Amino acid sequence: MDGIIFDVDGTLWDSTDIVAKAWTAYLQQTEKLDITITSERLMTLFGQILPDIAKALFPDFSKEEQLRIIDACCQAEHEALLHECAPLYEGLEETLSALSSQYPLFIVSNCQAGYIEVFLKTTGFEKYFKDHLCPGDTGLAKGANICRIVQKHHLKAPVYVGDTMGDFTACDEAGVPFIFASYGFGQVEHPYAVIHKPLDLIPLCHTSV
């Protein structure tokens, strides 16, 4: 193994409560819409690309309006997350510190442009990661972005850590083994390996060398 690529939501932190409140406040106060977004609903949607999330949440609007509204929601979300760091999964920084001393670490998420940067800034974790990509940066889906990271950094045997079936499918497309973060938002059958908390990655990665 020569690199570890991470998802964000449901893998590194759980931002759903803060994001749900930020989106609801924007929708009700600015758009004057009688819509309440819950963290439980977001858990079922996170991991999808943003246009699909917008379509699920705002089915009565045109595609253009869906994208306009979701983009504005994301700006409100960024402001909220910069003001208040979302809960990190237990042992995360210890895990990242230990792993980054041995392997290059990366992030590939199906999020909007700027979201990974918000995560890195509000947590102070920039020092642990070499690079990151998302559809908001490239216009590409997760599988293609994983491939870009692999090619750019000349990785021969990376793994990906995520928590949803979408992550698993993207890894299958990219030809990268998938490690399932079972503490996250989704369910995945037949992953390469399973972790129940971030700290489980340390012994797992040692045995995978």
Record field, number of beta strands? 6
Say what the CATH topology of the largest domain is.
Answer: Rossmann fold
Largest sheet: 6 strands, parallel
What is the count of structural domains? Answer: 2
Strands, helices and their partners?
Layout: E1 3-6, H1 16-29, H2 39-45, H3 50-57, H4 63-83, H5 92-100, E2 105-108, H6 115-123, E3 131-133, H7 135-138, H8 142-152, E4 158-162, H9 165-174, E5 178-181, E6 193-195, H10 201-208
Parallel strand pairs: 1-2, 1-4, 2-3, 4-5, 5-6
Helix pairs in contact: 1-2, 1-4, 3-4, 4-6, 8-9
Which features characterize this protein?
209 residues, alpha/beta, 48% helix, Rossmann fold, 2 domains, six-stranded parallel beta sheet, globular, 6 strands
Write up what this structure looks like:
The protein is α/β, with parallel strands linked by helices. The chain has two domains: 3-14 and 87-208, Rossmann fold; 16-83. It contains ten helices and six strands. The protein has helices spanning 16-29, 39-45, 50-57, 63-83, 92-100, 115-123, 135-138, 142-152, 165-174, 201-208; strands at 3-6, 105-108, 131-133, 158-162, 178-181, 193-195. The protein has a six-stranded parallel beta sheet with strand order 3-2-1-4-5-6. Helix 9 links the parallel strand 4 and strand 5 (178-181). The longest helix is centred in the middle third of the chain and has 21 residues, at 63-83. The termini are close together.
Sum this structure up briefly.
This protein is of the alpha/beta class and 209 residues long.
